[in-house]
């Protein structure tokens, strides 16, 4: 029996480069390495081939590559050939419509898909996206809640719910969602961080500290260390707060919050020189920050260096004219130097901005008392106490 030559067999085989599998893999390779245009052309070519089987995966690849119209053309053609309603076609078409900002059409499509498969969490997630695009966050929450019932162990859905609640200032509901995330994925740093932020908003400082500790353990960043330090300071655990601010500055020496907040802690502990060193460092990095300049001047006042402090207050006011806090602090500084008239002018400027500034009225009363204008001083004190 004669065996066929290998070359004859090869000629009868279909070329690999024309096969569906080869072109599908090649398209994925192009997409992975950034040549999306080539990948899209190959996927469209695959969809245009005659086939009795729907290629939902290829259509999904096109959607992921933001080739919404190409995917939509195929899906609408496929739908016209179908005898029954297909939830998968409706879902993928809804994704195309969302990508093309056709939200009402997307909503109708995904609602049709949900009628057939109400236990598919992805469908509910997409409906939530539609409601969010339409500005109806409460309906979005209902959709995500249904998604969670369909897939109770999906932490990302819990997280989305928490973010929506947090954005709309429903901190307690947000906290419950983030707690659920932490139970489902206890080593996810982001979930612990969001849980900690909600505790902080709810003034649950000990719980906030514990959650930030875990967030730092599972994904330590200088920002997290700074937030943990802030929590400890708010919870009157100064030693731990200082420790974590120092840790932040060790890894990120120009960390704004740590420099300014640690300086404030030192100032409150009567460690003015340590505070000044940190503020000098901060100002060298952020020379046009009016709040830093204000804080630096405030520390100088406590060292008795009022002339230098006044210079920094004025520099801060040049950056943010009519800032009430900086105006008030400059008035205090000038009154300590005995610059009565300039102090009076600046306090009056402050009171034009905020006529109910009690501290401003009290300061003005003290100035008039110092220059023996008792009647005017009494009027100012009455306004400070809201008696006039």
Automatic annotation (TrEMBL):
TPR repeats lie at residues 121-154, 155-188, 222-255, 256-289, 290-323. PROSITE patterns: TPR (PS50005), TPR_REGION (PS50293). SMART domains: TPR. Pfam families: TPR_10, TPR_19, TPR_8. InterPro entries: TPR-like_helical_dom_sf (IPR011990), TPR_rpt (IPR019734). Keywords: TPR repeat. SUPFAM superfamilies: TPR-like. Gene3D superfamilies: Tetratricopeptide repeat domain. This is Tetratricopeptide repeat protein. It comes from Desulfosporosinus fructosivorans. The lineage of its organism: Bacteria, Bacillati, Bacillota, Clostridia, Eubacteriales.
């Amino acid at each position: 029996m004669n065996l066929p030559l290998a070359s004859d067999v090869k000629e009868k085989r279909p070329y690999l480069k024309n096969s569906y599998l080869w072109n599908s893999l090649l398209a994925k390779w192009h997409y992975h390495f950034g040549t999306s245009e080539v990948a899209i052309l190959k996927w469209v070519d695959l969809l245009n081939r005659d086939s009795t089987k729907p290629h939902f995966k290829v259509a999904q690849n096109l959607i992921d590559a933001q080739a919404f119209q190409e995917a939509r053309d195929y899906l609408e053609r496929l739908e016209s050939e179908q005898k029954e309603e297909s939830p998968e076609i409706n879902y993928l078409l809804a994704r195309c419509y969302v990508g093309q900002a056709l939200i009402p059409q997307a909503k109708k499509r995904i609602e049709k898909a949900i009628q057939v498969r109400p236990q598919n969490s992805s469908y509910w997630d997409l409906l939530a996206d539609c409601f969010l695009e339409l500005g109806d966050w409460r309906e979005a929450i209902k959709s995500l809640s249904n998604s969670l019932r369909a897939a109770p162990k999906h932490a990302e859905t819990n997280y989305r719910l928490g973010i929506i609640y947090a954005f709309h200032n429903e901190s307690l509901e947000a906290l419950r969602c983030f707690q659920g995330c932490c139970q489902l994925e206890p080593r996810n740093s982001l979930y612990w961080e969001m849980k900690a932020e909600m505790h902080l908003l709810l003034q649950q400082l000990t719980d906030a500290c514990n959650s930030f500790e875990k967030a730092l353990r599972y994904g330590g960043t200088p920002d997290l260390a700074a937030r943990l330090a802030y929590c400890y300071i708010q919870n009157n655990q100064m030693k731990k707060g200082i420790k974590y601010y120092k840790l932040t500055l060790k890894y990120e020496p120009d960390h704004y919050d740590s420099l300014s907040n640690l300086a404030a802690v030192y100032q409150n502990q009567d460690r003015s020189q340590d505070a000044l060193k940190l503020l000098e460092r901060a100002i060298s990095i952020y020379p046009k920050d009016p709040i830093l300049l204000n804080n630096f001047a405030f520390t100088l006042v406590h060292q008795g260096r009022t002339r230098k402090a006044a210079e920094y207050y004025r520099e801060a006011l040049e950056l943010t004219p009519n800032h009430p806090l900086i105006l008030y602090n400059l008035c205090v500084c000038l009154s300590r130097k005995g610059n009565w008239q300039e102090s009076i002018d600046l306090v009056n400027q402050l009171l034009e901005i905020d006529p109910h500034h009690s501290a401003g009225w009290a300061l003005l009363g003290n100035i008039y008392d110092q220059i023996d204008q008792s009647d005017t001083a009494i009027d100012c004190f009455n306004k400070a106490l809201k008696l006039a």
